[in-house]
Design goal:
alpha/beta; Rossmann fold; 7 strands; globular; binds NADP nicotinamide-adenine-dinucleotide phosphate
Length: 245
């Protein structure tokens, strides 16, 4: 059990490029972290090692969020180690190009099951715990500004992210006043040092702030939501003004 008495965060997708930075930042805010990875065990172990420097009681578990049974198993493992849940960050996501006329059932299932179904059942499992607690808790979903754009060749991905934004509003309404539920919609984030100097195509021309996002831009938005007590059902676009273009 959580003998440390610290606040606790359950996070999916913390083995990701941006996800690992988010998990580290939340640990740095004084939280115990319980996170999931799916196929990247080595990356997950490196992330856990870093997190444990500041939060030694933190743990990780393998979980394919496209499978409800895996989500149930992960939450069962969570509950055997931690007796409170203050924050869920649902970040697990699949992303690949799918030309509209060539999308297969397998492409659709892989993208929509991971991103939308996985986010729904993770939120549901977290809400079941949070609604029993006598204190305010928070859910932050990770969507994408593509939910508000009409990208070519990414239909299942963008539809899944649009669905996540609507799930965010639904959970916010149905779980208030116990849970604050919001979404972060990143623009293009440079998770690799030096990538800013090699922008893809004309992307920078479409970003009023004239740079790609940095993981810290996302971390700062998450920290803001972790402090807020009156914002719910919102999508915060962290995109350097890309959606203004
Ligand atoms: N980075 C960006 O520029 C950007 C832009 C817009 C939106 N976002 C959103 O921000 C969030 C974090 O991005 P990121 O850069 O960390 O993404 P990423 O590097 O692509 O990592 C994806 C994460 O999702 C996990 N995942 C994939 N399929 C899974 C499955 N079936 N079950 C469980 N976990 C699964 C991966 O785990 P394994 O590797 O262990 O399989 C990994 O931890 C995502 O929701 C992403 O869509 C990112």
């Amino acid at each position: 059990m959580n003998a440390s008495g610290k606040k606790v965060c359950f996070m999916t997708g913390a083995s990701g490029k941006l996800g690992s930075e988010i998990a580290l930042a939340i640990a740095g805010q004084g939280y115990s972290i319980f996170f999931t990875w799916n196929s990247s065990q080595e990356k997950a172990e490196k992330t856990l090692e870093k997190i444990r420097w500041v939060s030694p009681e933190s743990r990780m578990v393998q979980c394919d969020v496209a499978k409800v049974s895996d989500i149930e198993r992960a939450f069962s493992a969570f509950s055997s180690h931690f007796d409170r849940l203050d924050l869920l960050v649902s970040s697990a996501s699949n992303f690949f190009r799918t030309d509209l006329l060539d999308v297969t059932e397998s492409d659709w299932n892989s993208l929509v099951d991971t991103n939308l179904k996985g986010t729904f059942f993770t939120m549901q499992a977290a809400a079941r715990i949070m609604l029993r607690q006598p204190f305010l808790s928070r859910i932050i979903t990770m969507s994408d500004i593509s939910a508000d754009l009409v990208w070519r060749n990414y239909a299942p991905y963008t539809v899944s992210k649009t669905g996540i934004q609507h799930l965010t509003r639904i959970f916010a309404r149905e779980t208030a006043p116990h849970i604050l539920v919001n979404s972060i919609a990143p623009g293009t984030i440079s998770a690799y040092p030096g990538r800013e100097s090699e922008p893809e195509g004309d992307l920078l021309k479409k970003i009023p702030m004239k740079r790609l996002g940095d993981p810290m831009d996302i971390v700062m938005a998450i920290r803001f939501l972790m402090e807020s007590e009156y914002i719910t059902g919102q999508v915060i676009n962290v995109d350097g003004g890309r959606l203004l273009h």
